[in-house]
Amino acid sequence: MFRVRPSTVGQMPELQNTRCVLAVPELRAAIDFFVKQLGMQIDFEAPGWAFLSRGAFRLMLGECPDALSPAELGDHSYFVYVNVSEVDKLHAEFAARGVDILQALADKPWGMREFGIRTPQGHRLMFGEELA
Fold it and tell me: The pTM is what?
């Protein structure tokens, strides 16, 4: 069993934020989806990479044309659960833009109101808000 020595408590580096990384077969098509359909903005681009964000959610897209398709991963193609405010409004926004809603908006027994989407590349994302 791992135990933290009292002398190291408070000295651990802080984990400040998260940036998810997705392998995509065609970078430009993926950028277009995340910007036009999900309302993200491009923060930075480099050869084979795009750094996107919407609020505190950060995403890196890496072009990997020979990578295994997320559609081939089945249940393992879920890559992130994003906590949001106003999940009903976000769901309506995505539905109006024609985003593929994979899992309908619903209250869950684990205390979240959530829905899931699928990207054209096959990645699945969940968005949820804590129930009051």
Answer: 0.84
What residues have CB less than 8 Å from 121, skipping those under 6 apart? 22, 24, 25, 29, 30, 33, 69, 70
Domains in the chain, please, with CATH?
A: 18-130 (3.10.180.10)
Instruction: Over range 40-45, report the average pLDDT.
Output: 97
Residues 6+ apart with CB under 8 A from 33: 119, 120, 121
Locus of tokens 């000295």: 11
In b/e form, how buried is each residue of 50-73, taking b as 16+ CB within 10 angstroms? bebebeebbbebebeeeeeebeee
